[in-house]
Amino acid sequence: MSTLRFHAIKETFNRPVIDVQEPARRSDIFGKNVFNDAAMRQYLTKDSFRSVQDAVTNGSKIDRSVADHISTGMKEWAISKGATHYTHWFQPLTGTTAEKHDAFFETTEDGAIEKFGGGQLVQQEPDASSFPNGGIRNTFEARGYTAWDPTSPAFIFGTTLCIPTVFVSYTGEALDNKTPLLRALQSIDKAATDVAKYFDKNVTKINPTLGWEQEYFLIDKALAKSRPDINLTGRTLLGHASAKGQQLDDHYFGSIPKRALDYMRDLETECMLLGIPVKTRHNEVAPNQFELAPIFEETNLAVDHNSLLMDVMSKIADRHNFKVLFHEKPFAGVNGSGKHNNWSLATNTGINLLSPGSTPMKNLQFLTFFINTIKAVNEHEELLRAAIAGASNDHRLGANEAPPAIISVFIGSQLTNVLDALEKVKNGKLSPEDKTDLKLNVVGKIPEILLDNTDRNRTSPFAFTGNKFEFRAVGSTANCAKPMTVLNAIVAKQLIEFKGQVDELIKGKKMKKDDAIFNVLREYIKDSKRIRFEGDGYGEAWEKEAKKRGLSNNKTTPSALKEQVSKKTIKLYEDLGIMSKVEIEARHEIEVEEYAMHIQIEGRVLGDIARNHVIPTAIRYQNILIENVQGLKDIYGKDFKKLASEQMRLIEEISGHIESINKDITSMIDARKKANKLDDAEKRAFEYCEQVKPYFEEIRYHCDKLELLVDDEIWPLTKYRELLFTR
Ligand code: ADP
Ligand code: MG
């Protein structure tokens, strides 16, 4: 066996048992490393505490002198917990998180102190010229700064105090994922509050909620390291399917293997300390695939928690000799990973606006937000698709894997019936009888628990699941900020439009409020019928039907991203004050650039593995065969052919594959060279997508065939069965 593979497998045999310590009650340690209300009450003056709370709920500015008080309290708290450093923690457009640690320690004239001032809390200027900026910051103005986001509490990870921040250029343009998200959340807060007031005057704030579900693979660290493709790209670029994969369905919800469970227990303890309210863990469909889900939270915090979680998961995995694979499709032939984004709207009065209620009025409120969301998705389905685009998610969307690249909304039969009935509402003012009938027989009859909205249609990318929408097409590597920015922005815009139309009917046609609401909703139901789909989202029939309905079906990232810079999108973002044209175009530039680089790296790695690992091994095996044939000839003379025929056939077959691989790699390199010459980043992305990527399948096909032919003893790459079934 090749040395790398051999040592990797040997290492897995003697894994030490890792001691996992768990508290008896998780609630005892929950949020212990978070500068939350309890910690603030202890370490801040009443006034400082109040000003943080005011900033959180009302977005008010924190005074510089108050910031000094807060930073001192925060520092004392952090030091009491063993922290030595602090960092502004932010989410640049690389999609991950960034941090630069500074010590509290400072020297003075007569010694040294621990210092952390208000200025250091509120704003920092990381030397950030190496983060993607899409041309926003010229080199002579290569300055960006991070600014404290008090709506997401500071926390301690390891020995570092982490302060969640936004990252913007000196001229104020967003350079991160958080800034547009915060602006979108502000938009929807305002828009949804205005609409919610139709039903309850006490509503003064709307918090969009997010509950993500993170899928991932756990692979033994040594085995993962033995594969150059996993190391450099996060996925396997080749590898023949294991004889046993997921066909027996014996992994899903099965008993969690002990080693994985120990990892999860350790991870969950860390999550508890960090205030990430993890709740659910289970095996997923593919072998060595798992899922983790928390209790939902306010969206900004939930997004931060997901980013933090992914970082923590990798770090804890290291301790357990695992590598976590977040890639959407690390292995061909078994399920890929996603990150469902469950989304709803919560009021300051404790109501979930997407939860049906017990009275007709509550249900009219529910229907208002429910139908407006559907309408928003209908109007902006293509932008929603763009929000989840990326080279790795392309392996799921549009590649016969859950869910399709076509965005549609599943609502279940009960609500379909309700919308069908509402569609028949009479135009104009309703008679008292009509209204009573409507309220009693349609709106009044929506059950509080929608039986068919649990999780029935797994093929839907955007499903209503009883009291929330579940956006299932989000990729497992995604930063949730992107889809959440789009979803909240489009619903905000929709609600503003809705309010305008309802008010117009009330004023112009002197309609009663609920008449007006019924009338507008009826039109929305008609307008957005095409987006509703209850059938099999994976089927070919749906692709045809969706095309007829005029829905987009952008199967690749470069084509999906186009909508991000359309006139319609620019108008949407500019109207809502979420992003300027410059910011939007910069983001697009970064994403197409990143896409091309992603495919470029994969192409290089695949070329290397195929040429420098697979082909030499195949030749070595071929030489063994040749030696064997030669030996048979020496012994049996001209009779050797009968005995050596199978070996000779193998020799030729191997040569055939080697030839194909070499030819394809040469063509792929040529295609890359051609693509690299293109100056325009978008064109380059298309070229990589259409001219370079198609070679991957071809090259892989022949390599995987060789894997089946060549002696297992000398095969250099750790095999699927070893990667997927080592427990
Ligand atoms: P399941 O889908 O497994 O039956 P749930 O419906 O309770 O379980 O929740 C699935 C996910 O949806 C969880 O991550 C949960 O936090 C999230 N979730 C539940 N209610 C809401 C809500 N109102 N807003 C956002 N996310 C929610
Ligand atoms: Mg789910």
Automatic annotation (TrEMBL):
TM ranges: none
| Record domain GS beta-grasp: where | 84-172
SMART domains, sorted: Gln-synt_C
Q: Where is the GS catalytic domain?
A: 177-614
Q: What Gene Ontology terms describe what this protein does at the molecular function level?
A: glutamine synthetase activity
Q: Name one GO biological process term.
A: glutamine biosynthetic process
Q: Which residues form the signal peptide?
A: none
Tell me which domain of life the UniProt entry assigns to the organism this sequence originates from: Bacteria
Q: Mind telling me which SUPFAM superfamilies this protein's record contains?
A: Glutamine synthetase/guanido kinase (SSF55931)
InterPro entries noted in UniProt: Gln-synt_C, Gln_synt_N, Gln_synth/guanido_kin_cat_dom, Gln_synth_cat_dom, Gln_synth_gly_rich_site, GS_Type-3, GSIII_N
Q: Which family does it belong to?
A: Belongs to the glutamine synthetase family.
Specify the protein name. Answer: Glutamine synthetase
